[in-house]
């Protein structure tokens, strides 16, 4: 099984990496082209474009200016250890063993507006560029048009190399839209996490994001290869709900 997750806005480049192993992103040439475009924006334009505060805009303006190749362990960090936020709280990559990180490296991919597709140990430098933002490039009016089928093709290449028959979609809608589902050469399984609130089960973003991370960790640590085994997931009160599940959507629910 190949797992897909989203990146995070929160980053940690201060804490020392728990692993010295690293790899290089396959799309650094494309990342460099995007950085070149982003450097044309002023801090005020970045604030408008990203809908963020002037302080955050200034930070990202400086990030784009300082972004440079080649990456190494002195100026960059492995993606799975650099990203923070709810999904990555659930994964808790710092506590994974070197062997488990290697399992993640083989079975997990992170979608990214700037880097396209990342392996967990791919080095990244600090950035913020959400996939849904409308950045004008020579490929089109937004990042979906910029990446085209490159992300899909790279995922298919990995699926073929690993002889995987299943793609586990634990990414947000914004990021999974960068994947052309019709062209994916695998069965797509989407776990959904719902909490019981006000008399009904609903997706609560904060909890659902962390649960996606917990599910990712569950798959990695147990080296799962069969989607049927996902139904055994029962972390933090979530259990498989067969009544709400249908086709390739596996719904996990918990009571508040």
| CA radius of gyration | 18 Å
- Report the sheet-strand fraction: 15-25%
Coarse morphology: globular
Structural class: alpha/beta
Distance between the termini: 31 Å
SSE sequence, one letter per element? EHHHEHHHEEEHHEHEEHEE
Number of helices: 10
Number of strands: 10
Largest sheet: 8 strands, mixed
Quick check: average pLDDT?
A: 97
Number of domains: 1
Poorly predicted regions are none
Q: What is the helix fraction of residues, given as a range?
A: 25-40%
Kindly describe this structure.
InterPro entries: YaaA. Belongs to the UPF0246 family. It comes from Ancylomarina salipaludis. This is UPF0246 protein EO244_03920. This protein has 256 residues and is an alpha/beta fold. The protein contains ten helices and ten strands. It has one domain. The strands form two sheets. Strands 1, 3, 4, 6, 7, 8, 9 and 10 form an eight-stranded mixed β-sheet that branches. The chain is globular. The model has no long low-confidence stretch (mean pLDDT 97).
């Amino acid at each position: 099984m190949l797992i897909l997750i989203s990146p995070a806005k929160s980053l940690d480049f201060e804490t020392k990496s728990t692993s010295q192993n690293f790899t290089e992103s396959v799309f650094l040439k494309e990342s460099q082209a995007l950085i070149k475009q982003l450097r044309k924006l002023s801090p005020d334009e970045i604030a408008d474009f990203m809908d963020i505060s002037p302080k955050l805009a200034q930070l990202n303006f400086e990030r784009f200016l300082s972004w440079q190749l080649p990456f190494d362990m002195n100026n960059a960090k492995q993606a799975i250890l650099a990203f923070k936020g709810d999904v990555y709280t659930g994964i808790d990559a710092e506590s994974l063993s070197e062997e488990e990180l290697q399992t993640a490296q083989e079975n997990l991919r992170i979608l990214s507006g700037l880097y396209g597709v990342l392996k967990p140990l791919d080095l990244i430098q600090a950035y913020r560029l959400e996939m849904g933002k409308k950045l004008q490039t020579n490929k089109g009016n937004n990042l979906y048009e910029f990446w085209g089928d490159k992300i899909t093709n790279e995922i298919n290449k990995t699926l073929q190399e690993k002889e995987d028959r299943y793609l586990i979609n634990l990414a947000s809608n914004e990021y999974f839209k960068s994947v052309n589902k019709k062209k994916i050469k695998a069965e797509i399984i989407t776990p959904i996490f719902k909490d019981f609130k006000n008399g009904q089960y609903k997706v609560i973003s904060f909890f659902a994001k962390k649960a996606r991370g917990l599910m990712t960790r569950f798959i990695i640590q147990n080296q799962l290869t069969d989607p049927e085994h996902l139904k055994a997931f029962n972390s933090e009160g979530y259990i498989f709900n067969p009544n709400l599940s249908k086709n390739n959507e596996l719904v996990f629910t918990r009571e508040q």
